[in-house]
Design brief:
By secondary structure, the chain is α+β, with helices and mostly antiparallel strands. It has seven helices and 15 strands. This is RNA pseudouridylate synthase.
């Protein structure tokens, strides 16, 4: 069995914390030039723009910029930077809880995606941390939903990523969340919620369906006042939107949720009422050192501290805060 050649390093640096696009030319193809292949492979890009990129030396191979008339070479690698769209800046900082030569643990704010996806590219925790910390090879060990704040972990070097990703894939990380939602005196808690969740591509909301459960969440009430409850949530599985869907199915949807129980469409610059869900802590045995690790968010949920201010919205001043906990 023929071994695949290692991928050569990119000849282009990152741009605003984002890696260049890398393409490998197919081993078999009818194209005479690199330009012909790019026009077929990138139908969403106007041929005139491809010509401009080639003419401007923006498409690179392992030996440097690709000539506009360069012949097609099967198996060759190409790199170029995609156009980075203008994004609404998320007006909250990413706090660094811990940093060493292996790990960076961040306290992510609400509204900031963990990694580039869809319309969120440079306004992501990964891109910001790469720029701010000068760590171009930083990569995520897992992801935290864009609307959820709290603890998220990154690896400094690619060779360590698989070990830490494996912790999450094998469910060897104890994750604890905090949420603010309506208080229902008739809801018997604590309890363990089990259901089967389906999340279809292109559909924003997940849903519960009959069948063997594939999602398990522990729900506890830790306090209540003024019709609101403060909840400790412990997911034992990691399905998309699991905690949000389970809380909604119990009749106590998390405050500020634009999807459960009803899908709304807030404006991209509406930062007034953050989802009241916080990834409070991560706890695990370090796969590299064997040490017990626990990282805890310093953030608080604003609807619990002052529901009136949270309900009034108002942008950054209504955002959940990050400060050392007592």
């Amino acid at each position: 069995m023929r071994r695949r050649r290692p991928v050569p390093p990119s000849p282009l640096p990152q741009r605003r914390g984002i890696d260049p696009v890398r393409l490998r030319l197919p081993e078999e193809g009818r194209w005479e030039t690199v330009r012909d292949h790019l026009v077929d492979r990138l139908p969403a890009v106007e041929p005139a723009l491809i010509d401009a990129m080639l003419g401007g030396g923006e498409v690179w191979g392992t030996d440097g910029p690709v000539d506009p008339g360069a012949p097609y070479r099967p198996g060759a690698y190409l790199w170029f930077h995609r156009e980075l769209p203008e994004e609404v800046p998320v007006p909250y900082a990413v706090e660094v809880l811990y940093r060493d030569d292996v790990l960076v643990v961040a306290d992510k704010p609400h509204f900031l995606a963990t990694t580039p996806r869809g319309r969120h590219v440079t306004e992501t925790a990964l891109a910001r941390l790469r720029r701010d910390l000068g760590l171009p090879r930083l990569s995520p060990a897992h992801r935290l939903d864009r609307l959820t704040a709290g603890v998220v972990m990154f690896t400094v070097r690619p060779e360590h990523r698989a070990a830490y990703q494996g912790l999450f894939q094998d469910r060897r990380v104890r994750k604890e969340y905090e949420a603010v939602a309506p208080h229902d005196p008739g809801l018997e808690l604590p309890r363990t919620v089990r259901s089967r969740i389906v999340k279809e591509r292109g559909v924003i909301a997940a849903r519960e369906v009959p069948g063997e459960p594939d999602s398990v969440s522990r729900v506890e009430l830790t306090g209540h006042r003024g019709g609101l409850g403060r909840y400790r949530l412990v997911p034992l599985t990691g399905r998309t939107h699991q905690l949000r869907l389970h809380m909604s199915s119990l009749g106590v949807p998390i405050l500020g949720d634009p999807v459960y129980p009803t899908v709304t469409d807030p404006a991209p610059d509406d930062f007034g009422r953050p989802l009241q869900l916080l990834a409070r802590s991560l706890e695990f045995t370090d796969p590299i050192t064997g040490r017990a690790r626990r990282f805890t968010s310093r953030r608080t949920l604003s609807a619990w501290d002052s529901h009136r201010e949270w309900a009034a919205g108002g942008g950054p001043r209504g955002a959940d805060s990050a400060h050392p906990s007592g």
